[in-house]
Amino acid sequence: MNAPATTAVESDVAVECVAVQKSFDGTPVLKSIDLSVPHGQVMCVIGPSGSGKSTFLRCINHLERIDGGLLRVAGEMVGYREHKGRLHELRHHEIARRRADIGMVFQSFNLFPHLTVLENIIEAPMAVRKNQRDDAVADARRLLDKVGLTGREDAYPRMLSGGQQQRVAIARALAMRPKLMLFDEPTSALDPELVGEVLSVMKELAAEGMTMIVVTHELGFAREVADTVVFMDGGYIVEQGAPAEMFANPQTERCRDFLGKVL
Amino acid sequence: MTTPIPTTDQPKPDLATLQVAPTRHYGRWFGTAVLLVLVAMLVHTLFTNPRFQWTVVAEYFTTPTIIEGLFNTLWLTAAAMAIGIVLGTVLAIMRLSPNPVLSGSAATFVWFFRGTPLLVQLIFWFNLSALYPKLSLGIPFGPEFISGSANEFITVYVAALLGLGLNEGAYMAEIVRAGINSVHSGQREAAEALGMSSRRILTRIILPQAMRVIIPPTGNQLIGMLKTTSLVSVIALPDLLYSAQMIYSSNFQTIPLLIVASIWYLIVTTILSIGQYFVERRFSKSDNKPAFTLARLKKTVTNGQREATA
């Protein structure tokens, strides 16, 4: 493998994957993923369940470790460093430092239930970024306003609807001022009438130029917001292109099949 | 096509007059009657059987020996529980470690200390000098810095703390482990994704949530420990029970003094139970369930009245 550089290089590519592989107990989930996401772009990942979409997303911030290939975010490998031609897994605090720049939003929100909305948002900026509490709180209020939840600072997550919880989760991720946002089926656990409020926050974020990778079943969102749509199946990227083109004229049998079932 | 359905709050008039008759629970009535008779018999005998010797109970209730014994019991309970909780937390974290040596040693510790009777452990620690007459601190297999006679170091207090604390550590380890396991893995992932450090994740995210599962059984353990400390009477540590025993071995008022000890145990247990209620409430504040307060009780009552009058 001819990995170009060991140090971080400023590049216009936010995420770069070369032949990324991942298996669970010998079962390959990602067989060989090649992909690159330029800064400021929105990429939607679609595909049938079990196709490896979520696993791929979780590899990007090293919630899953990859078994082979190269995965870089902003020119830096997330979980490893190269030393004399070998990859060494980083220590937890080094991984944590890199993760801090990558926001992640989960299907099941994963808000901290024992903390209030405000505490959920200011926790990481204070603990990781060492921000002053006043600054963190001011920032949190600004973000709550952005996601339309002004006034709910002192609520506990259980008192909120799913859509509100997910918007808090987005605010929590944004509070770290990430350079990249990962969304793992952010609306799949929501009642249909709550999906829209989360999607509109995400649309606004996309319009501001945030680099986003979104695993989703919301093809309408993909069509409207995504710069690129990636169709995954069986651990491979089967097809990739602009949403309008792909939805209108899928090139592969499998993609046509999938779109026929969900559109 | 959809059809609008007219909604109305008015029930149909002929059905509105129907009344609900409650079910009659004959079994419960019978059970209640039997219990009332038994309670009456108990109260009667408490007051009429002179052998309870309530005057002797009152006389010894606050005698200095008993109060000293009570204090020994209290600090022994607190110290043994503190050792148990700290040790249990460490053991639980070791047990969940991916390193097999760490998790294996924690499992073995729990296996051993849960698997042998506490009474045996207490006597064993008390007689440690028979196994190791000399104790020393130094580099393993190397030079010693401090050494001394085991008999001098292992006093009854040290033996009691070792016995109670290590044994409690084994039980607490299982409680803490269950608590940590009860926290959904998504919580750790969310914290990791935010770039938080392992220590911060454990202390700020995992343990506070584990507390809700850890605290109720820990309250149980604490109350259990209060009474388990009475086992130290076998190594002649003057706790509450042993103090009572010392008194009745000289004046032969066995029953009244056992009653004195029992009443003290009950008083402390009651206080601890009340404390447990408040601690549990503190750690479940994120639940939707509002806490029990006087203001809330008042609100419930007035709401009930309003409904009744409506």
From TrEMBL, chain A:
EC number assigned by the record: 7.4.2.1
CDD domains in the record: ABC_HisP_GlnQ
Keywords: ATP-binding, Nucleotide-binding, Transport
Keyword presence, ATP-binding: yes
Superkingdom, taxonomy of origin: Bacteria
Key word Transcription regulation present: no
Identification of the protein by name: ABC-type polar-amino-acid transporter
Species of the source: Prauserella cavernicola
Automatic annotation (TrEMBL), chain B:
One Gene Ontology term, aspect cellular component: ATP-binding cassette (ABC) transporter complex
Domain ABC transmembrane type-1: 70-276
Protein name, entry field: Amino acid ABC transporter permease
Listed SUPFAM superfamilies: MetI-like
Keyword Cell membrane listed: yes
Localization (cell): Cell membrane
Keyword Transmembrane helix applies: yes
Family: Belongs to the binding-protein-dependent transport system permease family.
Higher taxonomy: Bacteria, Bacillati, Actinomycetota, Actinomycetes, Pseudonocardiales
Annotated keywords: Amino-acid transport, Cell membrane, Membrane, Transmembrane, Transmembrane helix, Transport
Domain of life: Bacteria
Membrane topology classification: Multi-pass membrane protein
Pfam families the UniProt entry points to: BPD_transp_1
Residues passing through the membrane, by range: 29-47, 74-94, 106-126, 146-167, 230-248, 254-279
Single GO BP term: amino acid transport
InterPro entries linked to this entry: AA_ABC_transptr_permease_3TM, ArtM/GltK/GlnP/TcyL/YhdX-like, MetI-like, MetI-like_sf
Gene Ontology MF annotations: transmembrane transporter activity
